[in-house]
Specification:
By secondary structure, this protein is of the alpha+beta class. Helices cover 36% and strands 23% of the residues. It starts with a helix and ends in a 5-residue tail after the last helix.
Length: 246
């Protein structure tokens, strides 16, 4: 290999390693920012949970109302029930049971009744039946789960007439098509221990700050390793070009 070819190959390796180091640094900083956001959400969750419960469902869920507690009077709509797929609890696959709740003023509120385990046979769905008697439900307001990247509709058209429908990240408009009335664009996460509730996590559905910091540390180490490799390659190339003393 000619000296020029070796020089080009070395330059490409160094530039690639430096670019990798920069990319890892940006990813590390991004995870640090995500950790700060996670701490802020957790703090807002705790503060909202301690505030007095609202007695009327808001028209829309603003940031200052997210995680606020709500005591709502009305009745569940027994059919259709929705099962939010791809929900994991303690490493076990399952669904979140989402049920429409008709408020006293006629509006529809979506109630997330909690997590239920999925059967190994995915054609066998969990029993999430509920009666339509009037009641008061208590829980915390939150946004509907949303996918980072959404491809196509999340509600199978063929399942629209089923009593229990498996969905993936539905929006209020899609659910309203099946319910024949558009619900409010948020959900009430039913308190654990409430009648007809299932399993619910005690905190907000966010990645913990500690995990984000662990990821940030990993990316930082990768970046330092890439930078060290670039320095080693540069020193090796320099040493190979230095003539040995006679």
């Amino acid at each position: 290999m000619s000296a020029r070819a070796r020089l080009v190959r070395t330059a490409v390796a160094i530039v690639g390693l430096l670019a990798l180091a920069v990319a890892c640094s940006f990813l590390s900083l991004w995870q640090y920012r995500r950790a700060a956001e996670s701490r802020a959400v957790t703090a807002r969750f705790a503060a909202a949970a301690a505030a007095p419960a609202l007695d009327a469902a808001p028209k829309e869920l603003t940031d200052d109302l997210r995680f606020r507690r709500l005591a709502a009077v009305g009745r569940y709509v027994p059919e259709p029930q929705f099962l939010l797929d791809n929900r994991v609890h303690d490493g076990v696959a399952g669904y979140d049971a989402l049920t429409a709740f008709e408020l006293a003023d006629g509006r529809l509120l979506l109630v997330n009744r909690g997590w239920v385990e999925a059967s190994p046979n995915r054609s066998v769905l969990p029993d999430v039946q509920i009666d339509a008697g009037e009641r008061t439900v208590l829980g915390q307001l939150d946004r509907l789960p949303r996918a980072g990247l959404r491809l196509g509709a999340s509600l199978p058209a063929a399942a629209a007439r089923e009593p229990v429908i498996v969905v993936v990240y539905p929006n209020a408009e899609e659910l309203g098509f099946v319910l024949h009335a558009r619900p409010l664009d948020y959900a009430l996460s039913l308190d654990s221990g409430e009648p007809d509730s299932f399993v619910r996590d005690s905190g907000p559905a966010v990645v913990s700050p500690e995990r984000h910091l662990a990821y940030a540390g990993q990316w930082l180490l990768f970046g330092i390793g890439a930078l060290g490799a670039a320095v080693a390659v540069a020193r090796g190339a320099r040493a190979s070009r230095t003539p040995s003393p006679s």
